């Protein structure tokens, strides 16, 4: 994926994930299912916000924009989704509206021998 990847280049599910990171601003997105390399929002992941009581935090300026160039961290997250195919992201750590770290559960993540299972009905 190019470093000039834009929000509008993403599927609607991936755009929703970027927007969820932005609106979380600081905290964690937990138990996000991934099927066919796409985030699934049914059921909706758990969002745990880290709220500082001693200062106001500014929201991401991109929240007001309909399109923008994605940060390197978001581009890497999209690339990891492509490699993951299906599984569960246990946690995405979000700081300043940007995904910084994640804890992933999948079979053979990132290897050439990915064992896939069908989505439960």
How does this structure look, described?
- The protein has 121 residues and is of the alpha+beta class.
- It has one domain.
- It has helices at residues 12-24, 72-84; strands spanning 27-35, 38-40, 46-49, 87-95, 98-105.
- Strands 1, 2, 3, 4 and 5 form a five-stranded antiparallel beta sheet that branches.
- A hairpin with a 2-residue loop joins strand 4 and strand 5 (98-105).
- The chain is globular, with a radius of gyration of 15 Å.
- The model is unreliable at 113-118 (pLDDT under 50).
Report the end-to-end length measured between terminal Cα atoms. Answer: 32 Å
Question: Could you say how many structural domains there are in total?
Answer: 1
**Which consecutive residue ranges, at least 5 long each, have pLDDT under 50?**
113-118
User: What is the residue-mean pLDDT, rounded to a whole number?
Assistant: 87
Coarse shape: globular
- Tell me about the largest β-sheet: 5 strands, antiparallel
SSE layout:
Elements: H1 12-24, E1 27-35, E2 38-40, E3 46-49, H2 72-84, E4 87-95, E5 98-105
Antiparallel strand pairs: 1-2, 1-3, 1-4, 4-5
Could you provide a short overview of the structure?
With 121 residues, this protein is α+β, with helices and mostly antiparallel strands.
């Amino acid at each position: 994926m190019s470093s000039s990847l834009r929000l509008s280049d993403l599927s609607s599910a991936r755009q929703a994930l970027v927007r969820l990171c932005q609106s979380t601003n600081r905290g964690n997105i937990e138990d996000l299912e991934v099927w066919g390399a796409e985030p699934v929002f049914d059921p909706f992941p758990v969002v745990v916000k880290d709220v500082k009581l001693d200062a106001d935090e500014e929201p991401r300026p991109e929240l007001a924009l309909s399109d923008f160039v994605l940060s390197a961290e978001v581009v890497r997250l999209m690339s990891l989704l492509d490699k993951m195919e299906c599984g569960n992201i246990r946690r995405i750590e979000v700081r300043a509206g940007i995904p910084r770290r994640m804890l992933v559960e999948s079979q053979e993540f990132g290897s050439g021998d990915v064992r896939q299972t069908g989505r439960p009905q």
